[in-house]
Amino acid sequence: MGTKILIIFSTLTSLLLLSLLYIPTKQTHPITIFRPTKTFIVPKGQPNPYNATFAYLVSASTGDTMKLKRLMLALYHPGNYYLIHMDAGAPENEHQEIARFVSSNAVFAEVGNVWIVKKGNIVTYRGPTMLATTLHAMSVLLRTAQWDWFINLSASDYPLVTQDALIHAFSNLPKDLNFVQHTSHLGWKMNKRGKPIIIDPGLYSVNKSEIWWVIKQRSLPSAFKLYTGSAWTILSRSFAEYCIVGWDNLPRTLLLYYTNFVSSPEGYFQTLLCNSEDFKNKTVNHDLHYMDTPPSNPRSLGKDYRRMIQPFARKFKKRNYQDRSGASETREQAVCLRRMVFVV
């Protein structure tokens, strides 16, 4: 009798442990609202026609709907993935306009690789909310699709090369390279960025407002070295996974530190990459963006041609144009943009 009871008990225990292994958890459960109804699937037995794929976060705020449409039409490729984030502070009619733009595009619907963040975030550029939005987009895209590099753009950006050309250029590159402009020479940012402490109401308020400055300042950190650079990056999938999953505690430690940091998007990824033993030697010191600083606006093809040989450039102001759909440039303006003849 004792042996039978022991066998029954052991069997039930084994079945219970086995069932626990197959219970889906919140971490592994798919995010259905972002999952496409159709995907760009390569037939079995055939090689993937694209040796490099990109996942884009395209951010927009109030008044950016026309610029966002312009960017998406120029940036779109069936082999890539696109997540659009509209600032929660933008008017409801602008959110609806972007939703109509995506849902009414026949190609977007057929391929199923363009999504919109359902619940947008309040974004203040100089606070950590922009960084939080970027990390949120990384997390969504990691769980939604397979890709090689993550690229963050704003509606004021514009591609200077075709996506086919960009895919070709990245096809033979190591997939773990990160393209981030960075430096440890803080200069004026030592006192204007490293020491001030700020509070961003966008983290806890439904209304957008300016960041708050704390009177008392802090000393520079000694546990890690600060780096700074451009907020626009091209990050490998492996590094994106490191940012989200964080197999050591550095990503979380730096995220807490940069919560009260002025313009945290200009320092978080740089500092994380350069302080990580796994990634510090896998970083190219360039963000592959053309920016005329100041005032961060491209000027003209004749004057800036050599410096404009980059995949992307910014900022491009809003243009007053409409076609039959009310979405894109006139023929002359479209040719002008694609030839990089910019006068801003």
Automatic annotation (TrEMBL):
GO MF annotation list: glucuronosyltransferase activity
Segment forming the signal sequence: 1-28
Q: Keywords for this entry?
A: Glycoprotein, Glycosyltransferase, Membrane, Signal, Transferase
Q: Does the keyword Glycosyltransferase apply?
A: yes
* Listed InterPro entries: GLCAT14A/B/C, Glyco_trans_14
Q: Which domain of life is it from?
A: Eukaryota
Q: How does it sit in the membrane?
A: Single-pass type II membrane protein
Q: What is one cellular component GO term in this UniProt entry?
A: membrane
Known Pfam families for this protein? Branch (PF02485)
Compartments where located: Membrane
**PANTHER family referenced in this protein's UniProt entry, alphabetically:** CORE-2_I-BRANCHING BETA-1,6-N-ACETYLGLUCOSAMINYLTRANSFERASE FAMILY PROTEIN, GLYCOSYLTRANSFERASE
The name on file for this protein is: Beta-glucuronosyltransferase GlcAT14A
